[in-house]
Amino acid sequence: MLYWQETLSINVLFKSAANNPPNITGPVSFMVTLNEESSFLINVVDDNLASFSIISGEVEGGVLTRDGNTSLYTFTWTPTAIIESPIVFVAADELNASSLYEPRVEFCQCLNGAVCTLQGVLDQLANPVDLLCICSTGEDS
């Protein structure tokens, strides 16, 4: 191996050792209503960010868009059915460090002015979770 190749290899090794995975921040949970568009912001910070994408979840029609040349992404989705598995996003940098982000999806199916609530849901840590409805007196939802 030539000297410059050894130096290059050592530099890459030091960069990898000092590299931190991307930092992803966003809401812990977000509420969606069937057949209505919902969106939320996700902030992804990394000096060497290579990609940010959805890796799992039943998000047919879900769109992830970078907001200009910033660290902000908007996830927009109009769910047409209740999903059975969580939505997972992954950010990876050029040195192969990666981070996962898995917000809890809260489905609201209330009608006629009823209000969605997590109160009374047996498994409040489920992801996704089907919220319960609080109805006005004499209303069905």
Description:
The strands form four sheets. Strands 1-3-6-5 form a four-stranded antiparallel beta sheet, with no helix packed on it. Strands 2-9-11 form a three-stranded parallel beta sheet, with no helix packed on it. It has a three-stranded antiparallel beta sheet with strand order 4-7-8, with no helix packed on it. The protein is mostly beta strands. The protein has a single domain (3-109), classed as Immunoglobulins (Immunoglobulin-like), CATH 2.60.40.10. Mean pLDDT is 84; it is low at 1-5 and 7-14. The chain contains one helix and twelve strands.
In short:
The protein is mainly beta and 141 residues long.
List strands and helices in order, with pairings.
Layout: H1 3-18, E1 23-25, E2 29-33, E3 38-45, E4 49-56, E5 63-66, E6 72-77, E7 88-93, E8 98-101, E9 104-108, E10 115-117, E11 129-130, E12 132-134
Parallel strand pairs: 2-9, 9-11
Antiparallel strand pairs: 1-3, 3-6, 4-7, 5-6, 7-8, 10-12
Features:
Immunoglobulin-like; four-stranded antiparallel sheet; three-stranded parallel sheet; 11% helix; 40% strand
